[in-house]
Design a protein that fits this description.
318 residues, alpha+beta, Immunoglobulin-like, 3 domains, five-stranded mixed β-sheet, 8 helices, 12 strands
């Protein structure tokens, strides 16, 4: 991975909004920053003036003038705090709106990855994925948030603010991307030793590209084409992998770990622990604990030829 590719891999910022919700939050930030900066500068000026007068032995001030100054400052403080409170309330109301025509996605936080399920009236039309969301530009998407274990927090700063996932208390949040792009997110609530390696990406694409992507995602896994891929599929089905993972179109139907049907299209492994490359995939299979200690992925003992074939097969799942 090149240096610039690495920057794209980790970049996320609340100061670069790409949706109306994030823009409302950014405007509130600008208001708070501007007002508090002015107050800070004024306080520092008053402090310097006071220190200079004390040094020069200025005793010309009287208690009455000091009382007036303090009263004015206190009154302005109350007015400013109420103004900031009102601005926060209006921003909260603006970002809490729930459109009725939104695409529904169920997002489950787990230690330490994200399970993604695109809702559909018919079970055959649902889409299962992990650690990545693909959404159409200009179309609202409502995420129904669940936690499977501890408190997590969903945060894609370029598109919205934070929303906690509390076990037993489901919530929701609406995203609306205004331009195509890739927006990095993160779990923003400490959830265990690998909290820092619980990232996700939101891929915002045109509505036509989204429709094509959804059609492709609903298809079963690509059948192995080469001898190496065929051998790799057999290795996968013989190994403990199907106990946790599913690959649609095969006998693998595990549900406790990410669905691997279209693994090769994803940007990362282990929710951002590693880039999705051939070398990293092989290392992850053999010793996932080295990259993400404490994760649920066990080490798989394979011969070099078995590992190579398995990586060939998983790398073909697009």
């Amino acid at each position: 991975m090149t240096f610039f590719a690495h920057l794209a891999f980790v970049h996320q910022s609340a100061l670069d909004p790409a949706g109306e919700h994030a823009r409302a939050i950014a405007r509130l930030w600008d208001v708070f920053l501007g007002i508090t900066t002015v107050i800070y500068v004024l306080v520092m000026i008053a402090l310097v003036v006071g220190l200079l007068r004390k040094r020069e032995g200025d005793a010309s001030r009287n208690p009455r003038s000091t009382y007036v100054i303090v009263s004015i400052a206190g009154g302005l403080t109350v007015v400013i705090l109420f103004g900031l409170l009102i601005a926060s309330i209006f921003t909260g109301r603006a970002i809490a709106e729930r459109p009725k025509n939104a695409i529904g996605i169920t997002l489950r936080g787990k230690q330490w990855w994200w399970q993604v399920e695109y809702e559909a009236a018919h079970p055959s039309n649902r889409i299962l994925s992990a650690n990545e969301l693909t959404i159409p530009v200009g179309v609202p998407v409502t995420l129904h948030l669940h936690s499977s274990d501890v408190i997590h927090s969903f945060w894609v700063p370029g598109l919205h603010g934070k929303r906690d996932l509390i076990p037993g208390h489901d919530g929701s949040i609406t995203l609306l991307a205004e331009k195509p792009g890739v927006y990095r997110g993160q779990c923003a609530e400490f959830c265990g030793v690998q909290h820092a390696k619980m990232a996700l990406w939101v891929n915002a694409v045109s509505p036509s590209d989204y429709a094509r992507w959804a059609d492709a995602e609903r298809t079963p896994a690509r059948a192995p084409q080469t001898e190496a891929e065929i051998a790799g599929q057999q290795v996968f089905l013989r190994a403990p992998c199907p106990l946790c993972h599913a690959i649609r179109g095969t006998d693998a139907s595990g549900s406790t770990a990410p669905d691997l049907t279209h693994l090769a299209t994803r940007r990362s492994l282990g929710a951002g622990a590693l880039p999705n490359t051939r070398e990293a995939l092989g290392g992850w299979i053999v010793d996932a604990q080295r990259a993400k200690p404490g994760c649920q992925m066990p080490s798989i003992n394979l011969r070099p030829d078995e590992l190579s074939a398995l990586v060939d097969y998983l790398g073909s799942l697009r």
